[in-house]
Specification:
This protein has a 5-stranded mixed β-sheet, with helices on one face. A 3-stranded antiparallel β-sheet has the order 1-3-8. By secondary structure, the protein is α+β, with helices and mostly antiparallel strands. It has 12 helices and 8 strands. α1 packs across α4 and α1 packs antiparallel against α6.
C-alpha cells in the first residue's frame, strides 16, 4: 500500500510538474509572440512615418515644379513618391501571396529597415483578417488611392507645362490647391492609420498581460498543493516571470515613446536646415552661402550625434544616468542655435541669464528636456503680439540645477494644464504637437530625480521651472 501511495504521490507531482512546465512554455511563447506582434505593429507605425515624410516631400517638389517649371523638382517628386508607391506594391504582393522576397525588396525600396520589413510581412500575413487590423489596412488602401490620384495629377501637370511653359499664374495656383488638398487628405489618413494601430497595440498589450497573469495564477494554485520545497521553487519562478512581464511592459512603453517622438524631437533641426537652405537658394553672395553651408554642417553633425544617442538609449532601456561635464552657457546656446532657424511667422527675442558654471549631469537627457521645452515655446509663440520673447534663466541653488524658461506665447488654457504631461495628450489650439514631447520630458526629469513646475495664463504665456540635482565642477 505504501508503495502504491508513493507511486501515486510521484504521479501527482509528475503531473503537476508537467502542467507547470507547459504553463511556463505558454508564458514564454506569449511573451515571444506578443513582443513580436508589438514590434511588427511598431514597424508599421515607423513605415507610416516614412510614407508620410516622403509624401510631404513629393508634394512640396511637385508644387515647386508648378511654379518654377524646373524638371529637377519633378524628378525629386517621382523619387519621393516611390516610397508610398513601393509600400502599396508590397501590400498588393502580400495579398497575391507572391514570393516574400519580392515583398521584402519592395519594403526595402520604401526605406523600411530590414528587420522592420520582416516584421511587417509577418504581421500582415498572420493578422490581416483580424477586425482590429482590417481597419488599418482599409485606411492604408484609401491613402494609396489618394497617392494614385496625386500621381495622375502630376502627369497632367507635366503634360500641361510641356505644352504650355508660360502657363497662367491662376492655373498654377489651382493646381497647387489641388495638390495641397490631396496632401491634407493623405495626412488625415496617416493620422487615422496611426491611431488605429496604437489602439491595436494597447489591446495586444492588455491581452498578452491578461493571459500571462491567468497562467501565473494557475501556477500559484498548483504550487499550494505541493510541498514547501516546490512552493518556494515555483514562487521564485513566478516572481521571475513577473519581472519579465514588467520588463516587457517597460520595453513596450519606451518603444512607443521613441517611435512616436522621432518627428517631434528631430523636427526642429530639420526645420532649421530647411530655413537655411531657403536662404541659401536666394543668396547671391558666395561668402554668405558658404556660411550657410557651414551652419548646415554643424546642425547635421549635432543631429547625427543626437540620433545615435537615441538608438543607443532605445537598445539599452535600463541604462543608468551618465555623468557628463557641460558648460551651461554653451549648452543652451547650442540648443537655441539648432532651433533658431525654424520656420517662424514672427521673430522671437531670446534672452539669457545663465550662471557661467560647469556642472556634472546627464547631458543627453538634459538636452532632450530643454530642447522640448524651448521648441514648444517657439512653436506656440503669439503672432498677434508686437514683440515675442523667450527668457532662459539658469542658476545653481543648494546643489540643484534650476532652469526657468518663460515666454509670452499663446499660453495654455487652465483646463489643459494638469494634462500636458500625459502621453499623447494634445491641447486643441493649433494642433501642432504630437502629444509625446512633454511626456518624454517628464519621464527624463523623473529619471534624473528632478521635478518640474508649469504655470501658464492663457493669452499671456507660459513658464516652466525645472529642478535637477547636480554637482558643480570646481
Amino acid at each position: 500500500m505504501e508503495k502504491i501511495l508513493t507511486h501515486r504521490k510521484k504521479t501527482i507531482i509528475y503531473n503537476y510538474a508537467v502542467y507547470i512546465f507547459i504553463s511556463i512554455i505558454l508564458i514564454v511563447s506569449l511573451n515571444h509572440y506578443g513582443l513580436k506582434l508589438i514590434n511588427g505593429l511598431r514597424a508599421f507605425i515607423s513605415g507610416e512615418s516614412l510614407y508620410m515624410k516622403a509624401q510631404h516631400e513629393a508634394t512640396r517638389h511637385l508644387t515647386n515644379y508648378i511654379f518654377t517649371s524646373n524638371p529637377k523638382h519633378y524628378d525629386l517628386f517621382i523619387e519621393n513618391l516611390e516610397v508610398p508607391v513601393s509600400d502599396s506594391l508590397a501590400r498588393v504582393s502580400m495579398d497575391k501571396k507572391e514570393s516574400q522576397q519580392i515583398t521584402y525588396q519592395l519594403l526595402l525600396k520604401a526605406k523600411n529597415l530590414p528587420e522592420d520589413a520582416k516584421n511587417i510581412i509577418w504581421v500582415y500575413n498572420n493578422f490581416k483578417n483580424f477586425d482590429r487590423f482590417k481597419n488599418a489596412v482599409k485606411i492604408w488602401k484609401e491613402a494609396d488611392l489618394l497617392i494614385i490620384e496625386l500621381e495622375k495629377l502630376s502627369r497632367e501637370i507635366k503634360a500641361t507645362l510641356t505644352q504650355n511653359p508660360e502657363m497662367e499664374m491662376q492655373k498654377r495656383k489651382e493646381y497647387a490647391m489641388q495638390i495641397d488638398n490631396l496632401s491634407r487628405l493623405i495626412t488625415i489618413k496617416g493620422n487615422d492609420f496611426d491611431r488605429s494601430l496604437i489602439t491595436t497595440v494597447t489591446f495586444v498589450n492588455r491581452a498578452v498581460l491578461l493571459m500571462i497573469m491567468l497562467n501565473a495564477l494557475i501556477i500559484g494554485a498548483c504550487l499550494l498543493v505541493l510541498s514547501i520545497k516546490y512552493i518556494n521553487r515555483l514562487t521564485a519562478l513566478q516572481k521571475d516571470t513577473q519581472i519579465q512581464n514588467e520588463v516587457l511592459m517597460q520595453t513596450n512603453t519606451e518603444l512607443d515613446l521613441f517611435t512616436h517622438s522621432v518627428s517631434h524631437d528631430l523636427r526642429a533641426p530639420i526645420s532649421s536646415l530647411q530655413g537655411i537652405i531657403s536662404l541659401a537658394e536666394i543668396e547671391q553672395s558666395d561668402a554668405q552661402r558658404t556660411e550657410y553651408f557651414t551652419l548646415m554642417k554643424q546642425i547635421l553633425a549635432r543631429q547625427d550625434s543626437f540620433i545615435l544617442k537615441i538608438i543607443q538609449f532605445s537598445k539599452n532601456k535600463r541604462i543608468d544616468l551618465n555623468e557628463d561635464t557641460i558648460h551651461l552657457p554653451t549648452f543652451f546656446e547650442n540648443i537655441v542655435e539648432d532651433l533658431k532657424y525654424s520656420d517662424l511667422n514672427t521673430p522671437i527675442d531670446i534672452t539669457y541669464k545663465i550662471t557661467p558654471q560647469t556642472i556634472i549631469t546627464d547631458a543627453f537627457r538634459l538636452d532632450i528636456i530643454c530642447r522640448n521645452v524651448l521648441s514648444n515655446a517657439i512653436k506656440y509663440s503669439d503672432t498677434s503680439k508686437a514683440v515675442n520673447y523667450i527668457n532662459i534663466i539658469v542658476d545653481i541653488k543648494d546643489n540643484e540645477l534650476e532652469i526657468l524658461i518663460e515666454d509670452n506665447g499663446i499660453g495654455v488654457e487652465e483646463a489643459h494644464q494638469e494634462k500636458i504631461f500625459e502621453m499623447f495628450y494634445v491641447t486643441s489650439h493649433h494642433n501642432k504637437g504630437s502629444g509625446i514631447g512633454l511626456y518624454l520630458t517628464q519621464q527624463m526629469i523623473n529619471k534624473m530625480n528632478g521635478k518640474a513646475k508649469f504655470n501658464s495664463v492663457f493669452g499671456e504665456g507660459c513658464a516652466m521651472t525645472i529642478n535637477i540635482p547636480t554637482c558643480v565642477v570646481s
